[in-house]
Records
---
Amino acid sequence: MSCLLSSGVLPPIGLATSGILLKLHEVLQKANNPWAIAGICGSFVFSIRFVLQWVASERVKKSVIPFGFWECSVIGCLLVLSHFIYEKDIVGILQNILPLPIYLRNVYLRALHKTPKHPGNEPRPVE
């Protein structure tokens, strides 16, 4: 490893880390208003839904849509939508407002059926 560092193939860890931190600092400087923070949080919440789906599917070894998928979709979509409305970004607004009725409908349907019926929501067996 030290051979790679001295040959210039890899930058020293300090320089690589400082570059990443500088880039992160630049991103955070742009996110200095509450609407940008809401948009970032919305993207994070929206992305979590795929992790939930992946974990639930792995548990039952088939593709399922778990409890929380549609809720994360609605919450994430609304947060990101609030950012795009603030920025007056018509593409972002349309991208988030068009699927919103589908997310809301699925949350409504889930509320009608108190107990989820698919295997992704069953308790894990005791190991």
---
Amino acid sequence: MKSTHPLSPPASRIPLPSVADGSNVVRRRSMACDRLATGLSGADHGLAVSILNVNAAPGEGPAAHVHDYPEVIVVQQGQVTCVIGGREIVAQAGDVVIIDAGEPHRFFNSGEGPLLQVDIHLSDRFATKWLETSIG
């Protein structure tokens, strides 16, 4: 019986692109970072996606912006409020938020503790058009 579970092993493994030291591990210290996130640009590693590891204190988050590709937010810990095209969506640990290409959005930690999330940009490079300078 064939499994359709998304975590089932594939029939044949596709090798991952390697990193400079051959370990297939990209160390945090080698990634770009700012006060909210550490980022991996897929183009640097032969990947079609780019990833942000977000760690935001209560009330923190980026200003409104837009991308020409979809973005997927995987909430790992805490609570996030996403404002997507004027709609407010609250998500918590274990939830996944999908943002369509071209959809203006912003998010902020609306919980009482840290917000940890992984933002998957379906592009080999980050391309962000900022629509405002702050979330306040």
---
Amino acid sequence: MAQHLRVDLDTVHGERKIEQEEKEENFRRVERQYGEFTRSFTLPSSVDPGQVSAHYDKGVLKTNLAKKAESKPKQIKVTVGSEKTVEAKAPGKAA
């Protein structure tokens, strides 16, 4: 059995080839199964292409797509006058 898998940043392509052969005294049977697939998708602009990883195990493909540092919300402290300190999330999020 042969399995091939290629993952680009926006395309997953796989191919599977299985060949089974059964020999007995009065017959011979060969079964072949071939399958190929391609899936394409668009990655969000917030994904860091240098931090993409994939793991294939037992027919399951798991991908991890990390956000770019500038895309992650950051906590900032805002001082209001001489009163208390208010914490807010940035960018563009209200406290």
